[in-house]
Amino acid sequence: MRWAVLSFAMLVTVFTAASAQQQVLTLDECVRIAWGEQPQVAIAEKNWRLAEERVKSVRANLFPQLSAGYQFRRYLSTRIGFQIGVGQVQVQEPVEFKETSLTVSQLLFDTFQTPLQIKQAKAQANASSHSYERTKADIALQVAQQYLEVLRARALVKLQERVLERAKRLLEAAEAGYKAGTAAKLDVLRAQVQVRNAEVDLLAAQNQERVAMLTLRNLMGVSEDFVFEIAEPTEERYEPPSLTESLAQALRQRPEIREAEWQQRSAEATKQLARINSLPVVNISGSYNRYPSTTRMTDKEWALNLIVSYPIFDGGRVRAELEQAKLQVEQSELNLKRTIDNIKLQVQQAYTNWQNATERLSAAQEAVKEASETARLTEEAYKAGAASLLDVINSQVALAQAENQEIQARYDLYRAIYALRHALGEINRYFADKGNEGKVSTLQPKRLSLSSGSK
Residue 93 and residue 233: Cα distance in Å, rounded? Predict the structure, then answer.
């Protein structure tokens, strides 16, 4: 019994240690987690689902409507009667009415209002599906940018650790020179100041890393109990098409443009409906009622209903609705144009930033090599008494600046790549393909045809 208890305790300990171990997530895994946990994505998906249900609701009006009912009424019927010797009297008799019914009705014609309502609802559903994709793309870009910001902050922490190590090494050299009588006390004090400044910069960099990680967790929508670490992105050679081809690709693929186009179609359908309501409206419907049990004489009924209506006076409501619909169409056209202009600007900016970051990284890497060699030679010269402490400090500051610029340029290039992928409208497909490699399925919204009979 004691051996069993010890074995169980060992298993619990091993399981706890394994569960507490941090898992390392790649960028595409963080993006897919955000797609599943971010409330913004969930809200956009619900809006899309609601729009699809609206299509089903409106389209149901084209199909026969079948309903069953049961009625029961009990009331007192009062009538005037005459009685010999009494004259006029009121007679009250209890009456019961029982009836079961089965009704079939069918809309035959409503001046094309229902097909237009279906067209409008489908346009809204398609706009919502592209809004869902747009939200996913925006979240993917935000997570990617913040993921890289965490890695940038982490690289700066490592840089500050190297700076502190160099400052301590310089302090040791200054103290050794002071003991040997080859360096002044002032050199030791200056070296100590460098160490303290490096320690302060290291603490600031560590805090910046923690804040960046908290922001990433917030963007991913994960709880505090979810413990994870992130990995450096794999080196990928990214060569976008020319700027002209990139602009054309963005106009084909960006969900914002498709969303604006479907919003415009919805506004046009609304205008057509408003125009119909300003004219004589004809409604034709048929119905058949069957009464399996009833207290009345009729057991079945056929009906053909023809209703013609025309608004003679409504206080200007129909005219105002028509003008409002026309303005909505004009507004949707302007919104589409504004969206296209904004996307063109985003592509041009992202493309320019990518080119600039590529050139900066190459120059920064060369600067690091030169500054590193300069710092090494200056430190050796100081130990040999051929250079001053200020020369060493200046060379180390220049090296730290060069390394900082290299880090900034490297992660700016990563960020520019993902910003350009987003601008071209391919960031969702990029991370979805990564997910397919990892056997992770993603939700793919379907498109609704504007023809009334298709889905």
Answer: 89
**In a domain? residue 327:** yes
According to DSSP, residue 312 is labeled S
User: Does the pLDDT at position 445 exceed 50?
Assistant: no
81 within some domain? no
Average pLDDT of the segment spanning 328-354: 97
Q: Are 431 and 140 in contact (CB under 8 A)?
A: yes
Is 65 part of any domain? yes
Cβ pair 126, 168 in contact under 8 A: no
Residues 6+ apart with CB under 8 A from 15: none
Number of domains into which the chain is organized: 1
Which residues face 284 on adjacent strands? 109, 306
Helical H segments across 317-443, by residue range: 317-383, 389-424, 427-437
3-state helix, strand, coil in the chain (%, to 5): 65, 15, 15
* Helices 317-383 and 389-424: angle between axes, nearest 10 degrees: 150
Residue closest to 113 by CA, chosen among 294, 231, 280: 280
Instruction: Write the CATH number for 144.
Output: 1.20.1600.10
What domain range includes position 274? Answer: 24-74+110-282+315-437
Structural domain includes residue 174 = yes
At 32, give phi and psi (nearest 5°). Answer: -70, -35
Quote the CA–CA distance of 429 and 122 in Å, as a whole number.
24
Q: For residues 257 and 250, what is the distance between their CA atoms, to the nearest angstrom?
A: 9
**Higher local confidence (pLDDT), 83 or 396:** 396
Other CB atoms closer than 10 Å to residue 123's CB: what's the count? 24
The tokens describing 342, both together, are 């904004």
| Three-state DSSP state, 233 | coil
Quickly state the pLDDT bin for 16 (edges 50, 70, 90): very low
Strands 23-25 and 281-294: unpaired
